[in-house]
Amino acid sequence: MSYVSSVVESLQTRYPWEKEFLQAATEVLESLEEFVERNPKYKQAKILERIVEPERIVTFRVSWIDDRGEVQVNRGFRVQFNSAIGPYKGGLRFHPSVTLSMLKFLAFEQIFKNALTTLPMGGGKGGSDFNPTGKSDNEVMRFCQSFMTELYRHIGGHVDVPAGDVGVGGREIGYLYGQYKRIRNQSDTATLTGKGLAFGGSILRPEATGYGAVYFVEEMLKTKGEDIAGKVIGISGFGNVAWGVAQKATALGAKVISLSGPDGCIIDPDGIGTQEKWDYMLEMRASGRDVVKDYADKFGVKFYPNARPWDVAKMDIAIPCAFQNELDLANAQNLLKNGCKIVAEGSNMGCTAEAFHLLNKNIMYGPGKAVNAGGVAVSGLEMSQNSERLAWPAEEVDHRLKWIMKSIHSQCLDAAAAVGDPGNYAKGANIAGFKKVAEAMLAQGIV
User: Fold this and answer.
1) Residue in 140, 166, 119 with CA at minimum distance from that of residue 64
2) Domain 54-188 shares a fold with domain 208-371
3) What residues have CB less than 8 Å from 179, skipping those under 6 apart?
């Protein structure tokens, strides 16, 4: 049995119930096998065994009172996975599906994603099984205050810097930061990112993940001598990532034709390319209804109940922007049949393992840890602005974001080519991210 196989088997034995984490860890470790065999120092120092175990996991009870005066109880988590290259950095997810396995997978992916940005950030993730959908602002505030009353002990600008994720937007970050400041009696703005512009946030942070994904796809197309202008793009979800992709892709001459939600998907043949439509996406999210049919009713386009965009429309590029494992094998087969040329994950681990293997062999495939790194990159830039007590203009932030995404693209291609698998973005991203973190771990001794 190979070294990598033994590490994977050990994980499967210890955590058989952690399906999402095992999926993410297996994909990364298997892609590293050849690279690790060529560099035995990583095996000697047991880097793989150490990098798949979080440095710390915090779990806690979150008690809060709803608008009826009834006590509600949720679970809170923070997975501080790896701090070899900087403070733990990663979002908070509030969603009823949140489990420790999900957060371990997200935090594990975050290690390598953050390393690819070239910024000094380790990997972490957290959240709760709290569902903000349908809750009043006061209920969300009370929950966030209770959540932070426990979490504050474990975070700080030089320790762990949370941000938003699914279910955690500007409203939630504001409430969380307000409670943190109240407890600590200090204005440590670098402790949370994704803040409002009025209190230390960075311009373009809400759009950053979507913008960065489009910049990465642009670089992928350039390797084929093509341009994004004129391309038809299908996206899922209607949150910040989808919103950012729709804006930036349109600005660069592409047409975005789809959105999706738990109720189904819409196809807009004219393109989701006007300010009115982008503003309505924000209204849909703010409504708390979590349905995409509202867009179809508003703009008179076709709604497909319980369907995904990949199955009902032809597209040159598919960018899943919603949730993990949202694009499965059947979806991947449909995309290939309909002539899709690129799948780039705007969501974390947007493809199932089966879909990933099919797509990675047949078309250009961009993994989430590379494609969607723009969000955490601008979070890192927000930390820099907070440290400098400055607020950069949009042009400065966008310029740095585009440079970072080009750098990530180059790192992926260079690392893949170095192991004789040119064009394999998934393998390249894993190797490039792993190498940076592993070298830092080696330099810091057995800790």
Assistant:
1) 140
2) yes
3) 144, 145, 148, 149, 152
Region 137-150: what's the mean pLDDT? Answer: 98
| Distance separating alpha carbons of residues 130 and 300, to the nearest angstrom | 34
Burial 391-410 (b: 16+ CB within 10 A, else e): ebeeebbbebbbebbebbbe
Catalytic, out of 89, 113, 125, 195: 125
| Domains of the chain by residue range | 54-188, 208-371
Active site residue 195: no
pLDDT in tens, 394-423: 999 999 999 999 999 999 999 999 999 999
* Domain 54-188 is found in CATH 3.40.50.10610: no
Please, what is the end-to-end C-alpha distance for the chain in angstroms? 27
Taking the whole predicted model, whether its pTM rises above 0.90 is answered as yes
Question: Are 235 and 314 a contacting pair, CB within 8 Å?
Answer: no
Distance CA 123, CA 106 (A): 9
* Domain 208-371: CATH superfamily, name plus number: NAD(P)-binding Rossmann-like Domain (3.40.50.720)
Contact 13, 414 (CB under 8 A): no
CA torsion sign, 287 to 239 to 200 to 251? Answer: negative
Q: What confidence tens digit (pLDDT) does each residue in 233-244 have?
A: 999 999 999 999
The CA-based angle 63-179-209, given to 5 degrees, is 95
